[in-house]
Amino acid sequence: MDRTALIEAARGDRPLDLAITNVNLVNVFTCEIYPADIGIFGDRIAVVGPAGAYDLEAKETIDGMGKWAAPGFVDTHVHIESTMVTPASYAAAVLPFGTTTSIIDPHEIGNVLGMDGVRFMVEGSEGLPLRVYTTISSCVPAVPDKETAGADFGPEEVAEMLTWPRVIGVAEVMDYMGVVNASPKMVGIVQAGLDAGATIQGHSPLLMGRDLNAYLAAGIDNDHELRQGDEGLEKLRLGVLPLLKVSTYGNYARNIVPTLKSAPFLDIALCTDDIEPADLLKNGHMDRVIREMLWHGIEPAVAIRWASYNGARHYKLRDHGAIGPGYLADIILLSSLEEVKTSEVFVGGKMVVQDGKLIEPIEEPPTTIKIENSVHLRQPVSVEDFKIKAPIKEGTVNVNVMVLEPSRLTRLETVPAQVRNHEVDPASLGEDVCYLSVVPRHGQQHPPVVALLKGLHLRHGTLATTIAHDSHNIIITGHRPSDMVIAVQELEKCGGGIVIVDEGKVLGKVELPLAGLMSLKPVSELAVEMEAINETAKSLGIDHRAQALAISGLALTVIPTVRISDLVGLLDVATQEPIPLFA
Amino acid sequence: MDRTALIEAARGDRPLDLAITNVNLVNVFTCEIYPADIGIFGDRIAVVGPAGAYDLEAKETIDGMGKWAAPGFVDTHVHIESTMVTPASYAAAVLPFGTTTSIIDPHEIGNVLGMDGVRFMVEGSEGLPLRVYTTISSCVPAVPDKETAGADFGPEEVAEMLTWPRVIGVAEVMDYMGVVNASPKMVGIVQAGLDAGATIQGHSPLLMGRDLNAYLAAGIDNDHELRQGDEGLEKLRLGVLPLLKVSTYGNYARNIVPTLKSAPFLDIALCTDDIEPADLLKNGHMDRVIREMLWHGIEPAVAIRWASYNGARHYKLRDHGAIGPGYLADIILLSSLEEVKTSEVFVGGKMVVQDGKLIEPIEEPPTTIKIENSVHLRQPVSVEDFKIKAPIKEGTVNVNVMVLEPSRLTRLETVPAQVRNHEVDPASLGEDVCYLSVVPRHGQQHPPVVALLKGLHLRHGTLATTIAHDSHNIIITGHRPSDMVIAVQELEKCGGGIVIVDEGKVLGKVELPLAGLMSLKPVSELAVEMEAINETAKSLGIDHRAQALAISGLALTVIPTVRISDLVGLLDVATQEPIPLFA
User: Fold this and answer.
1) Average pLDDT over all residues of chain B
2) Closest alpha carbon to A552 in A564, A543, A561, A568
């Protein structure tokens, strides 16, 4: 960047490259909105002034009359993998909604491919029109020794990755009890971030009181997992920057904003965390989070400040997130302020979205990482793997069943089950109970674990996926072991994805060859596939949010109350102790 | 710092070192004030909670009932040299007023001693109970080629000093027209700061419009030289962080705050810039700036946020400027919130001020810099050096006279003067006109420059000082060349300071052996000496603010309208062209 030429253009001794005139400027420094002209030179903003004040001379002038100019949105915490595409496809999908900077946590692909996975995301986002900054996943696996992921990041690995380009933070420190208990691993990982001058992302749903103080004393900067108003206010008071979110999995901001608004001073940031493909196309991205703020009565300029400048500043991203001289010319034009409707997007002074549409396709950057089938089974699965062996030959035993709630939380239920020929018969527990299994797929040498699941409302058939947070083994639920075998075989063959099988037939499949998590297709195509498989899941009875992915969190050993892990089967999340199958 | 032990203390599994209970917490995150308990372990805050919530177990407990706890103040821009003492003495003086972090610009000593001067300040502030961070002076000398300082810092020197410990920024970029005109030197210096990830301090009084845009496009982050409301608001809108100040030289905030308050969102920072010893002891420090904010109706918690957290965050000083778990335990207790009256000060958890008094003396840190007499004259001065040679032998000539206004600004006046035997007779212009000279003292090989000064109201005698911003040659004004010679000899002998001579006698002297700028005495002693010499200056007629230092800005070539430089004599600041003595 030629700073001298920029200065000359700013003062008026060199023509600007682009002027956007008579536009309603959303000034995120003062939270005012007023008519203004913006002059751009190269990839930066050179001059900003009241409309008509400077009679800007530029090679190209765009009349912004009737539109609003805002800084491109800065998403402060997001997993691209949740949108199930590559960074390039992701960029193509989110830019039309006004997001120009994404601070990503590649912990899904990191759990499968390890440091290679993180490197793939860093390389795969190099030079995109979306500015991608990476935070280094701190909890791979989510909880040590309780599950098997494809990798294990300790302080050394994290420290090494913190030196990679465009790496600016340590990603959500989810093992918050590890931090509260000062486990050497978690303290070491946070310290690696502090030593690197990185921002440390928190993740501590419902944590309050002295444990919260202990968590923060470790060096945590922010939290996107606020669940309740009182929790949010307590965190705010203790210096946490709330990153409020609306994601595919819920409107987490709704309960919290009213309480946060009671603080005399509130200046926070926003994020999306996880957005599935169809949800993204239908409901938007950071613009949706801003609309949620407007719903709460937050002034548009304030909400946009939260969605741009504050995140940039929090992560020390100099010159990002605002419209002022010297800032990067990442500017969006809104055709409606109330609806937060983006019409044009400029990144580094180049128009990349016009009339809400991407102008040109975005090419995949080259990568040094070779993408191979990541589904590594110890040996082919058989129907025997999914049967539940009982301690008696015939009769009744009490079994512990995981119950999935509509909230995606879980609980334990103990019920009497029929045993026939040493095998528990799930059908004896009613149509709503089926097998639940985790099939190791990172080359582990142990067999699948099996348990029972209730509450999914799967009436028949089998649903399986390699998206099984966070270790991403295969999670599978079904009524018939023979269908379950077919489902696993399908996933093994295509390198992972989502599959639905019923009565020996594959009813639906979404292939996700990249780590079993992501497709090489664009979001628009993937959204169609996802909608189709979701319809199939629904037709089999699943009435949960994110139908075909309703089971993808059942192996996530940090979310209450009961989960399943490849190492121990059913797990009590609070105590991290195994739960026996038979009560 | 043992992070594990801190976490344990925070969660309650290890006794705290100190608890401050039942105190009114000034929460700078939310701008609330409420009763709270604060637990400290080692040098950090471990736990903060509502009063009584956690029943804190600590080795020592202080009852904070009836007091307010606030973060120690962060001064965002200050020259310790203006207080004319070493960093250790400065720390002893400002800590009782609640300042615990100072972001210094050592450009006075830098102008005299060059990089050695900067290093002296860095070394001399190591390990003090006051946390001192250094910004590297960007304009040494203030304007290139127009004056001679003891050093010349280019981009390389600045880049090197930016690597020194506790260096966090580039100091006030005063040569704003150099930046606006994209001079390679100034662009290079700012770029060195950007490359180092440093914060870049602005200094652009009254700069507005496209020139301001050009200045900011270079990469400027803040400005402490706002002079008018409209200028302040324009800067705020363009992304400048205003650092509002009240200094010995004026209440710069008074005119600006009412206009800034009109912005819907305002979240700025505060500084002191220059405080002379007696003024400091009498009127305070950052507490005075906060009182100014309260005068404008700013809420106390907001004003304290501006005086602590915002500056820390702006300079990326992690864990400074707030009371929250993990933050440095730099806490002050106020006995009056309205008066911002500090009673106790804790730095890193240690009490250093009690009942408003420093508990123990502060030792000078060791330094590798040898402090020698810095007054280097080419040759002894003589009475001939101060006479003004006229182009005629006898009669009348029109002379250009610098007029000093009560505002400290200057203007030019052309008046007819009597010439006798080829010499201009100042007495012919009235009692209020006297000689004004800059005597080179950095070993320059040219003689003193001489001109005429009006408006100081010095009725007789001579006033001279080595404090002559920013190059710190000797500036001297007087009615009789013979007195002026004695004054210069006195300064040469003692290594600089301030001296008043009348009729051959030294009436007053303050010795400043450290670079001719600073004393080795404590502020309390120096304040007495300064008050004495100010009284002497007053007795000779000087009725300006900062009496004995009323002339110390007359060689500052960046302040309107007319100044005097060792290289060219009278100088037009706007054009940077010499002004001839005879019109």
Assistant:
1) 96
2) A564
Per residue in A408-432, pLDDT (tens digit) is 889 999 999 999 999 999 999 999 9
Collapse the DSSP code of A204 into the 3-class scheme (helix H, G, I; strand E, B; otherwise coil) and give the result. coil
Return the SS3 of A68: strand
Interface predicted TM-score (ipTM): 0.95
Rounded distance between C-alpha atoms, residue A216 and residue B579, angstroms: 62
How many other CB atoms sit within 10 Å of the CB of residue B317? 19
Contact status, residue A103 vs residue A76, Cβ threshold 8 Å: yes
Residues B471 and B441: beta-carbon distance below 8 Å: no
The string of pLDDT tens digits covering residues B404-428 is 999 888 999 999 999 999 999 999 9
Helix (H/G/I), strand (E/B), else coil: B90: helix
Residue from A14, A29, A222 whose CB has the most chain B CBs within 10 Å, to mutate: A29
Interchain pair B4, A326: CB under 8 A: no
Interface of B with A in 222-261 (CB under 8 A): 233, 236-239
A–B CB contacts, 8 A cutoff, strictly below: 195
* Mean pLDDT, all residues of chain A: 96
Q: Compare CB distances from B237 to A27, A190, A237 and report the shortest one's residue.
A: A27
Question: Which residues on A lie below 8 Å from B46 (Cβ)?
Answer: 213, 217
Q: Are B462 and B501 in contact (CB under 8 A)?
A: yes
Pairwise CB contact (< 8 Å): A10 & B210: yes
Q: Among all chains, which residue has been given the structure tokens 């002209």?
A: A37
**B548: its two tokens:** 């004995």
Backbone φ, ψ for residue B7 (5° rounding): -65, -45
Q: Which residues numbered 109-128 in B keep a CB inside 8 Å of some CB on A?
A: none
Rounded to whole angstroms, the Cα distance separating B174 from A142 reads: 52
A272 has a chain B CB within 8 A of its CB: no
Would you say residue B216 has pLDDT above 90?
yes
Nearest to A239 among B184, B237, B327 (CB): B327
Distance CA B173, CA B221 (A): 10
Instruction: State both tokens at A181.
Output: 């208990």
Whether residue B47 and residue A217 make contact (CB cut-off 8 A), yes or no, is yes
The string of pLDDT tens digits covering residues B280-314 is 999 999 999 999 999 999 999 999 999 999 999 99
pLDDT at B334: 98
Specify burial of residue A360 (Cβ count, 10 A radius: 0-12, 13-18, 19+). exposed
Within 8 A of A266 by CB-CB distance, chain B residues are 30
Cβ(A307)–Cβ(A9) below 8 Å = no
Of all residues in chain B, the one with the smallest CA distance to A199 is B318
Record the tokens describing residue A479, joined without a space: 């009524």
Q: Is B379 exposed, middle or buried (0-12, 13-18, 19+ CB in 10 A)?
A: exposed
Q: Are B564 and B412 in contact (CB under 8 A)?
A: no
Phi and psi at A519, nearest 5°, equal: -100, 160
Alpha-carbon distance of B259 to B208, in angstroms, equals 15
